[in-house]
Helix-turn-helix domain-containing protein (Blautia wexlerae), 72 residues
Amino acid sequence: MSIFEYNEEEEKRKLRKAEYEAGMAEGVMKTKKETAISLAEMGLSVQQIAQGVKVEEKTVREWLNEKTDVKK
């Protein structure tokens, strides 16, 4: 048996794990975005929001710009 032998079950397990982790990361960012928008509606500054949700100010500005673009 070769050390380079393909193991289908192992590859499927790795793929499921990677997909799970990507989904979790996406969910976390969605929650941060929703929280940032709520905090902006409460009157917090971009700097305060970025610090609170632990993302860059640039990202918060993008999220808030997306929100205002949808309203137009």
The CA atoms of residues 7 and 13 lie 10 Å apart. The domain at 8-71 is CATH 1.10.10.60 (Arc Repressor Mutant, subunit A).
